[in-house]
Amino acid sequence: MATNENNQEQNAIDALDFQLTAAGQRVASNKKIIYWCIAIVVICAAAGAAWYWGYILPTNKNSWKAYNQVEVQAANDSIASAEYAKVADKYGRSDAGNLAALQAALSYYNLKKYDETIKYLKKFSTKEDVMQAHADMLMGDAYVNLKKYDEAIAAYNSALRISSGNEQIAPAILWKQANVYDAQKKYKEALGCFKQIKQAFPNFRFGNGMSVDAYIAREEARIGQK
C-alpha cells in the first residue's frame, strides 16, 4: 500500500512539475510576444518622430517660404495663377499648399480660365465654414461660365449647406441658384429660391436694386406663360 501511495504521490508531483514547466514555457513565450510588441511600438514611434522632424516640419517651412515668395513677386493674375499652382502641386498636403490652391483658383477665375479654377478648387479644403462656402460658391460660378448648370447647382447646394444660414452668404447663393434655374427655364425652382430668400433673409438687398417681391412676381409671370 505504501508503495502505491508513494507512486501516486510521485506521479502527482511529476504532473504538477510538468504543468508548472508548461506554464513557465507559456509565460516565457508570452514575454517574447510582449517584448516584440513593445519593440514594434518603439520602432513605429521612432519612425513617426523621424517622419515628423525630418519631413513634415521641413516641408511646412519650405511650403510657406514658396507661398510667401509668390505673395511678394506675383505682379498680376497671369503670374500668380501659374506660381500658386506650382506651390499647390508641390506642397498640396501642407497648409501653405492648400491655401495656394485657393489663390491659384482665384487667379485663374480672374483670367476666365474656368477649368483650371475648378481643378484647383478641388485641391482646396478647410474646416472654416465661411471660407469653404465661398470656395464652393466660386466653383459654382466657374461651372456657370462653362454652362455646366447641373454641376453649378450642385456646387451652390454644397455652399448653401456649409454656410449654415449665414445672412450674407446664403441669400447670395440662393440668388445665384435662381439665375441658373432661369437659364434652364426652371422657373418653379427659381421661384422657390426667391421665396426662401424672402422668408429666411428678409433684410437681404440685391445688388441691382430689385426687391425680392419683384423677383417673385417675375418668376410667377414666367410660370403663368408656360
Mean pLDDT comes to: 79
**SSE series:** HHHHHHHHH
Structural class, judged by helices and strands? Answer: mainly alpha
Instruction: Please give the count of helices.
Output: 9
Number of beta strands: 0
What does the overall shape look like?
A: elongated
Characterize the main sheet.
none
In percent terms, what proportion of residues is strand?
Answer: under 5%
* Through-space gap between termini: 114 Å
Share of residues in helices: over 70%
Oligomeric state of the chains?
Answer: single chain
- Radius of gyration over all CA atoms, rounded: 33 Å
Report low-confidence residues grouped into runs of 5 or more. 1-57
Could you walk me through the main structural features you see in this protein, from its secondary elements to its overall organization?
Mean pLDDT is 79; it is low at 1-57. Helix content is 82%, strand content 0%. The chain has 226 residues and is mainly alpha-helical. The longest helix has 72 residues, at 2-73. Helix 4 (114-121) runs antiparallel to helix 5 (129-145) and helix 7 runs antiparallel to helix 8 (187-200).
